[in-house]
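Hi R.,

Here's the input for the pyridoxal-5'-phosphate complex you asked about:
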Amino acid sequence: MIPDVDNDSIVYLNGQYLPLGQAKVSVLDRGFIYGDGIYEVVPAYRGTPFRMEAHLDRLQRSLRAIGIETGWTRAQWEELVRDMLQRSPHENSVVYVQVTRGVAKRDHAFPKGVTPTIFCMVTPFQRPGPAQREQGLTAISIPDIRWLRCEIKSVSLLGNVLAKQQAVEAGVDEVVQFRDGYLSEGASCNIWIVKDGTLLAPIADNLILEGIRYQFLQQLAKTAGVPFVARQIPQSEVEAADEIMMSSATKEVLPIVQLDGKPVGDGNPGPVYSALRAAYDQFVE
Ligand SMILES: Cc1ncc(COP(=O)(O)O)c(C=O)c1O
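And here is the predicted structure with pyridoxal-5'-phosphate in place:
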């Protein structure tokens, strides 16, 4: 029995539906041996996947980027997500999909003729509550030590794991990572800043994972009349920002009100955050 999870919840593994506690993969699965795989996280509200098209686009992009061929059509991925959601008893859910290169003799290069491992589980989605929305999050700045293909949603997440652990050990909620003095992203979220009413984010290149909320928040900003610019953002600009925000599937959009022990702006969630937050909620409703 795995602690802290619903061992009886039904997961999908390689064509079978079975209880989470009984789902097993080989020790020679390349996901286990090399972290050779990709994943996707699709939030769903009241049984309806949110921005599923964009999530499936990214899933297929990730698979292509690392040369995994599942033979699955777009319709099959969509059916998997919808099918798993139908089995979910939760009001709001998170659908986790993982694909690894499969099980093979341990050898770095791609094995031939191997069937990818396909896994999917659904967990309850607790939307951010009033405390996080109104009081905001705290964060520390850390150097980004990850590889140069951060645009791939890879299960090789050691850099992200170590980053998040630094936040835990520092007693804060998040990390804000910098590569060569420029803002990249959080441990598992995108980071945004606001200066003089303009929303800024790093360019979505190979140094960050382009979150599904990366485009979505730009769309919300546009509707709210907030100008948006994507460009390199030096650390000094982050430190002098009026507002800092983070976005991800499960945190949606949240304010970071303290960075390295210093208040961001006046130390309270700012007006651009409030506008985006309200627009996000409205969209979900
Ligand atoms: C490293 C990283 N950046 C950004 C994001 C945000 O992506 P999304 O908005 O699709 O959740 C995530 C999400 O988990 C992530 O792991």
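One thing worth noting: The longest strand covers residues 37-45.

Cheers,
M.
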